[in-house]
Amino acid sequence: MKPDFSGVWRANLENSTLLRPKPKAMSASIHHTDPELRVEMVLTKPDGTEVRTTSRFLTTGEEVSNPLYGTGMRSRCQWMDRELLVESWVTLRGRDWHSRDFWSLSEDGQTLIMEHRDDDLAGQIARLERTHEEVE
Questions:
Q1: Within its chain, how far is the Cα of 78 from the centroid?
Q2: How many helices (H) and strands (E) would you count in the chain?
Q3: What is the residue extent of each domain of the chain?
Q4: Which residues contact 6 (CB under 8 A, 6 or more apart)?
Q5: Block means of pLDDT (10 residues each) for the chain, length 136 residues?
Q6: In what order do the strands lie in the sheet with 64-68?
Q7: Is-above-0.70 flag for pTM?
Q8: Residue 68 φ/ψ, nearest 5 degrees
Q9: What fold characterizes domain 7-130?
Q10: 17 and 121 in contact (C-beta within 8 Å)?
């Protein structure tokens, strides 16, 4: 059985390995009804400003386009056994970025692990803990 990523998640920054300057906070609200995922990410920068992104993905491998920082990001995702590979391409500030983000749940389903492998953010691992809030 494939995992259901639905829920409200808050990053455990002490147990995460982030390659960019560490944010003050990071959270995700995910509504997952396979094959569709709707994700709202909120990143709170060290100065307290928030960056919100909303994305839609299909686990069928079909390519979708989502807005990101005023430009378009192409993404596709597919199941790799019990992991979900979310692969994206975007051009930001004149540079092409490629992301391969592997999503999985801990055995108890209380931790969402987002691990970058073989991409521009290789080695970055975000660990988000399930909250008791409801997905909007």
A1: 14
A2: 0, 10
A3: 7-130
A4: 30, 31, 32, 33, 135
A5: 94 91 93 95 94 93 86 92 94 88 96 94 95 74
A6: 50-58, 36-44, 25-33, 7-11, 125-130, 111-116, 95-105, 83-92, 71-80, 64-68
A7: yes
A8: -150, 115
A9: Lipocalin (2.40.128)
A10: no
Cβ-in-10-Å burial (0-12, 13-18, 19+) of 128 comes to buried
Q: How far apart are CA 18 and CA 36, in angstroms?
A: 27
Sign of the dihedral defined by the CA atoms of residues 54, 39, 126, 59, in that order: negative
- Measured between alpha carbons, how far is 22 from 98 in angstroms, rounded to an integer? 21
β-strand partners of 27 = 10, 42
- Between CA 46 and CA 71 the distance in angstroms is 24
Contact 87, 99 (CB under 8 A): yes
